[in-house]
Amino acid sequence: xxxxxxxxxxxxxxxxxxxxxxxxxxxxxxxxxxxxxxxxxxxxxxxxxxxxxxxxxxxxxxxxxxxxxxxxxxxxxxxxxxxxxxxxxxxxxxxxxxxxxxxxxxxxxxxxxxxxxxxxxxxxxxxxxxxxxxxxxxxxxxxxxxxxxxxxxxxxxxxxxxxxxxxxxxxxxxxxxxxxxxxxxxxxxxxxxxxxxxxxxxxxxxxxxxxxxxxxxxxxxxxxxxxxxxxxxxxxxxxxxxxxxxxxxxxxxxxxxxxxxxxxxxxxxxxxxxxxxxxxxxxxxxxxxxxxxxxxxxxxxxxxxxxxxxxxx
Length: 313
Ligand SMILES: NC(=O)c1ccc[n+]([C@@H]2O[C@H](COP(=O)([O-])OP(=O)(O)OC[C@H]3O[C@@H](n4cnc5c(N)ncnc54)[C@H](O)[C@@H]3O)[C@@H](O)[C@H]2O)c1
Prior knowledge:
Blueprint: H1 3-13, E1 19-23, H2 27-35, E2 43-48, H3 51-62, E3 69-72, H4 77-100, E4 108-112, H5 116-128, E5 131-135, H6 139-147, E6 151-152, H7 155-161, E7 164-167, H8 177-180, E8 188-191, H9 201-207, E9 208-215, E10 218-223, E11 228-232, H10 238-241, H11 248-267, E12 273-276, H12 279-292, H13 302-309
The structure holds nicotinamide-adenine-dinucleotide.
């Protein structure tokens, strides 16, 4: 779809009112605010799926430019503990293995960003028998990675020893010129953050003599010094560009939260701003997941409820 086709489609859909938006990455919200503000009065509000989208909405809200209410689905427990950690953690490796058919055991895997996605992927890499290295900018996350049993170092150091590099930061140019220059011949780079900007493609291109397509979804940048650096899925999300994304057994949670949040926006008159998913909704989604799996959990007795509330015993 071209940008013009996308804009035409958005205008057509948002012409009806009232509208509730279900977004991922805040792409639709940003498009409406920047390109077609005349449609804003048709929008009651909406819900946002992912970490990067919530960051953009927080920035819009802080600048006072967000013109309708949005619900932050990403920060519900039923979302990030599962979709980001176990969904991305598995599907990024699905994409990697389908595309490269490489063995992961014994390789040094560099995970950039030890948030919910990165820690899921690190956990699975360890399960495959990889040597896992984590890079971070947050000292708490870095120390968590260390105590989870992984090596922690700067990307500058990791660049020299990694065989496989995967980025999960939502940030820009996490792998760039000075890192690419230090990498070994034959390394594989993939991204599973939000956009194809975590690995600097302009820097890869500038350092290359030419680019070859090694196999579907693998571009080999042949460096001027002869080293071959392989990029998965043009630096787009490895789990989506090179595989089928998360299994439905994970997406059912995220989609339930999205639907419940959209209904909440539809049935409540909310002021413009960013709202959390109501805790009862978050809990109800997880309860229905367990019920669907046929798993029972305990309920506190009246005595236990009382004991937990009391400070005198
Ligand atoms: N591929 C998918 O299907 C999928 C699913 C969910 C989320 N995401 C995206 O993945 C990204 C990460 O999501 P998350 O929930 O793990 O976020 P998060 O905020 O929990 O973690 C991101 C981590 O990256 C770290 N970081 C930021 N800049 C860095 C840098 N330059 N070097 C090293 N670390 C850096 C942060 O300190 C943080 O710990 C987001 O862009 C999110 O939208 C992708």
